[in-house]
Amino acid sequence: MSLIKGAVTVVSGASSGIGAATASRLAAMGANVVLLARNEDKLKQSARACFSIVSTRGAVGAQ
């Protein structure tokens, strides 16, 4: 059992680069990911990518 699954995680700089990759990986591991960034458009893209990962895995409660 993963310690990450179900945990609430906060990723700063989640709109690109390492932050976006970290957010995606945490979402894939089952974490509830809070994304923070300065660029709203890129942040929305990153959030959609995380949501896509979660919804393809069949997670419940993804928003």
Structure explained in plain terms:
The structure is a single chain. The protein has helices spanning 17-28, 40-56; strands at residues 8-12, 32-36. The protein is an alpha+beta fold and 63 residues long. The protein has one domain (8-56). Strands 1-2 form a two-stranded parallel ribbon. Helix 1 (17-28) runs parallel beside helix 2. The longest helix has 17 residues, at 40-56.
Mean pLDDT, all residues: 90
What's the story with the biggest beta sheet?
A: 2 strands, parallel
Distance between the amino and carboxyl termini: 24 Å
- What number of structural domains do the residues give? 1
Helix-strand sequence: EHEH
Question: How many beta-strand elements?
Answer: 2
Helix content: 40-55%
Radius of gyration: 11 Å
Strand order of the largest sheet: 1-2
Share of residues in strands = 15-25%
Low-confidence stretches: none
- Shape category: globular
Number of helices, where a helix is a run of at least 4 consecutive DSSP H or I residues: 2
Structural class: alpha+beta
